[in-house]
Specification:
Strand 5 and strand 6 form a beta hairpin. This protein is an alpha+beta fold. The chain has two domains: about 60 residues; about 120 residues, Galactose-binding lectin (Jelly Rolls, Sandwich), CATH 2.60.120. Strands 1, 2, 4, 7 and 9 form a five-stranded antiparallel β-sheet that branches. It has one helix and nine strands, in the order H-E-E-E-E-E-E-E-E-E.
Length: about 190
């Protein structure tokens, strides 16, 4: 065998070996990718079926909500010249006839303060109904009030205002803060 033949023979052996190595690496990458995708899909299906079965079997109800104010709001009251402080939401002739409950989270800043929060609705006919939420906690609490408790409204189809009011005569302290969050209507 000549030198040239030996080089060609060695080159062929080397090239065949490197091609086999590349092909083997591609196959192992493909197998790993398929295993990863398959196991990810199986985990997703398992979690989805567990959550779906849990909610269906336990009778968990999803609440249909119209969220008015998802962010926290601060009513900072100081009764020196003012007699009341309020936070008002313009409802823009919103039809609330389909909704049953007003829900929101609230807390007062000072645990020693004793106050009542007035909640009031006004419709397009200037009918006004109010309700007092007493014993507001200094920890976040979720409050749900049936719209049926607001007695002086004859028409819920065109509401113009929802207000949260802190009045001087309903607060022990002359200064304080009330926080509201996640104001919504539930069906």
């Amino acid at each position: 065998m000549e030198k040239k033949d030996i080089y060609e023979h060695l080159a062929k052996i080397y090239l065949d070996a490197s091609l086999k190595r590349k092909k083997k690496a591609k196959e192992s990458t493909r197998v790993f990718r398929n295993l990863f995708l398959g196991s990810s899909a199986a985990i997703f299906i398992l979690v989805f079926s567990l959550v779906f079965n849990f909610s269906r079997n336990k009778g968990l109800k999803a609440e249909t909500a119209l969220v008015l104010q998802p962010d926290a709001v601060k009513i900072n009251f100081h009764f020196d010249p003012a007699k009341k402080e309020f936070y008002s939401l313009a409802l823009n002739n919103l039809d609330l006839g389909r909704y049953k409950t007003l829900a929101f989270s609230a807390k007062k800043a000072d645990y020693k303060d004793n106050l009542a929060l007035k909640i009031e609705f006004i419709n397009v006919f200037k009918e006004k109904s109010e309700l007092y939420l007493r014993n507001l906690s200094h920890k976040w609490g979720d409050y749900k009030i049936s719209l049926g408790e607001f007695k002086n409204l004859s028409d819920w189809s065109s509401m113009i205002n929802l207000g949260f009011v802190v009045e001087e005569w309903n607060a022990k302290e002359k200064r304080g803060i009330v926080y509201l969050d996640n104001i919504r209507f539930l069906k």
